[in-house]
Amino acid sequence: MEVVILPGSRQIGKLAADAIEALLRHKPGAVLGLATGSSPLPVYDELALRHERDGLDFSSAHAFALDEYVGLPPGHPQSYREVITREFTNRVDIRPENVHTPDGSAEDIPAECRAYEERMQAVGGVDLQLLGVGTDGHIGFNEPGSSLASRTRIKTLIEQTRRDNARFFAGLAEVPHHVVTQGLGTILEARHVVLVATGAQKAPAVRNFVEWPVAAVCPASVLQFHPHATILVDEAAASSLKLADFYRHTYEHKPGWQGL
Ligand code: GLP
To answer: Does any ligand 1 atom lie closer than 6 A to the CB of residue 35?
Structure first.
């Protein structure tokens, strides 16, 4: 796990976009794993800018979202399908048929979950997975207690997550209780994982998953098993890390050829 502490979300957006740009230039048909929430927005802004300004090409790329609410009608503005389209994929030249989100309104949810995993495998698996982290340590919608080997499946949201996400809805009552999410085992198969966390409210979760033992009670801690996980945090989100100075020192002295 590499922890990079940066001054703010603009720098985080640029560094994550550098990794995605390098991947696309080397492999134009790369498979990107997309996250929702506010943390990845600076990354999407930077990628949209590079597409517009430098012609960064997404026309052969594929994208898979991490998760989706269950029970929202198709086209609901807060469905993750709509959020991903609005915040990112509509702003670049990725082909709509190459953008995948789990169908939370499917009649047979277990069959949809299996099919989603198969669609990911059919294009060779995810090359780079962007992640945020919930205040309870969830990634995707894998809440505390999620199996560390889990695959795409239905989950029930913990109340803290429903409250955290109520800001996107008219009120708490409108936030669905159920979701479909890639599992922790699914996420671990991405070849490179880039997690973004900003703000003091994320500091306890960041400390827990980076420096505490791996445990299902803090699902993001499973990333300690990942051979190539990059954690991009601002100073506030890094403020509870015991080894912050070591992470800074390591990044400052990193050989330039290594990249992210
Ligand atoms: C939601 C998403 C997660 C995201 C989390 C944190 O629950 N399912 O993928 O990481 O929110 O969101 P934010 O970045 O807005 O804090």
So the answer is: yes
Phi, psi of 194 (to 5 degrees): -120, 110
Instruction: Examine the pLDDT at 259 and tell me if it is beyond 90.
Output: no
Work out how many domains the chain is built from and give that number.
1
Q: What are the tens digits of pLDDT across the range 201-215? A: 999 999 999 999 999
> pLDDT for 135-169, tens place per residue?
999 999 999 999 999 999 999 999 999 999 999 99
In a domain? residue 260: no
Whether 61 is in a domain gets the answer yes
Q: β-strand 192-197 against 229-234: which pairing, if any? A: parallel
Please indicate whether residue 36, judged by its CB atom, sits closer than 6 Å to ligand 1. Answer: yes
Any atom of ligand 1 within 6 Å of the Cβ of 66? yes
Nearest CA, atom 6, ligand 1? 134
- 136 catalytic? Reply is yes
Q: Is 234 a catalytic residue?
A: no
User: Is 78 close to ligand 1, i.e. is its CB under 6 Å away?
Assistant: no
Residue 143 known to be catalytic:
yes
Question: Does the structure show a pLDDT above 90 at 74?
Answer: no
Is 259 domain-assigned? no
Contact 251, 244 (CB under 8 A): no
CA of 132 to the centre of ligand 1 (A): 5
- Listing from the earlier edge strand, what are the strands of the sheet with 178-181? 67-69, 178-181, 153-156
Strand pairing class (178-181; 67-69) = antiparallel
With 90 as the cut, is the pLDDT of residue 236 above it?
yes
Question: Considering 68, 112, 143, 234, which one is annotated as catalytic?
Answer: 143
Q: By residue range, what is the domain housing residue 230?
A: 2-254
Return the structure tokens found at 42. Answer: 């600076």
The CATH number for 246's domain is: 3.40.50.1360
Residue 13 lies in a domain: yes
pLDDT at 151: 98
